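Entry 12.
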Amino acid sequence: MISLRALEIYYWTAKLSSFSRAAEKLNTTQPTVSQRILALEEHFGRQLMNRASKPVSLTRDGQRMFAHVELILQQIAKLNQDFDQPGHIGSVRLGVSETIVHTWLGSFLEASHQRFPQVDFEISVDVTPELQRGLSEGELDIAFMLGPASVDGLACHHLQDSPMQFYAAPDLIPGNHFKSEHIGHFPILTYPRHAYPHSQVRELLQRRGGQQPRIFPNSSLSTMERMAVDRIGVALVAQGAFQLSLEQGKLVALKSDLPIPVLPFYSFYLTGLGDGVLSDLTTIAQTVAQQLG
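Predicted 3D structure (tokens):
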């Protein structure tokens, strides 16, 4: 007798091309994954996976098997949906950019809990390249990060375009108006070199300032906020990221005529079994981001 759990394990092992990644996603052990797939192979009398290849690949019989398994699991998901049954959702491994943590993540989690009270979130905060790697390697189910990008096996949906804003300690910049003439006088505290806006910001500041700008890149918004409060430089980050320091009067939002690029945030998630929930979570994120972002 073939169990649905065995089919689910086979599906995700094939989808992620890894026994260990499938085990992590399904909250089980690698030996259990291996045993379930071996049992399927013994049941059908066919080798389904090439274990010697790295990453794991499907045999021709395994590819035929995958097509059937995918249809079966999709039909079960549709059955649960038609009868208003949530099915087994468990936890969702969510990756987020730190900017979103400081702006609308809390509201998203609250709205998601109302829609899916049975879902628990495992949250990872990181820069976009690491979040994309986590998705591609099956360590994350969904991520809210900078985009867009076309990655095989990942859905990509726009969430919001977040304007960037100059922030500084009160009276650091005359009239709280950041102009081209200030570029060479103050270090610019902004996102790390491998993040999307860094090269655009550097090019803009160099062109407008007429000299190589002093940029202090940092991957931590909290660190940049502390440095700006301590008058080390002028921060250039997503609008709304330093709301508490603004309310406390430790920082001010600067006016500026410089054409600063926006930060385009997108939702990325693994396509396939269970992506209906991830699609619904993306819709919730779009609503919250547009209301609060």
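Annotation: The radius of gyration is 24 Å. The domain at 164-261 is CATH 3.40.190.10 (D-Maltodextrin-Binding Protein; domain 2).
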